[in-house]
Design goal:
Length: 117
C-alpha cells in the first residue's frame, strides 16, 4: 500500500510523517484491496483561526470504486483522525458490499441448480 501526502505550505511539514503513520495503522487491514492512499491538507484561511483545515483522504481500491473523504476541522490532527476513521469505515462498507453481493449471487446460483435437479 503506497501512501502519498500533500501538505499546504501554511501547515507544518511534520504532519506528513504523522499522517503516513496513522494512515498505515488505520488502513492496514485492507492492504490487499488498497492500491494507494493520497492524503491532502489545505488551510483555507491561512494563519487566521477558525474551522478551516481540510483533510482529503483518497483511497484507490482494486476492483472497487474509489473512496474520497473530505473532513474539515479547526485542528490538523482532528481533521486527519476523523478523515481516516471515515475512510476506513467507507472502505469496509465498500468491500463488504461487494463480498455480500458475491455470496448472494453464489447462493442464488446454488438454489437455481438445486431447483433444476
Amino acid at each position: 500500500m503506497k501512501i502519498d501526502c500533500v501538505i499546504d505550505c501554511d501547515l507544518p511539514v511534520l504532519i506528513r510523517e504523522t499522517a503516513e503513520q496513522r494512515a498505515q495503522s488505520r488502513l492496514e487491514r485492507f492492504e490487499e484491496v488498497i492500491e494507494d492512499v493520497k492524503i491532502a491538507f489545505k488551510d483555507h484561511n491561512g494563519p487566521r483561526k477558525g474551522v478551516d483545515t481540510e483533510c482529503i483522504v483518497e483511497v484507490h481500491l482494486h476492483d472497487h470504486p474509489d473512496v474520497i473523504i473530505h473532513e474539515t476541522s479547526d485542528k490538523v490532527g482532528k481533521a486527519l483522525y476523523q478523515g481516516l476513521i471515515r475512510a476506513a469505515r467507507a472502505v469496509a462498507r465498500t468491500v463488504d458490499v461487494k463480498q455480500n453481493r458475491r455470496k448472494f449471487q453464489e447462493g442464488r446460483q446454488a438454489k437455481l441448480e438445486v431447483a433444476e435437479v
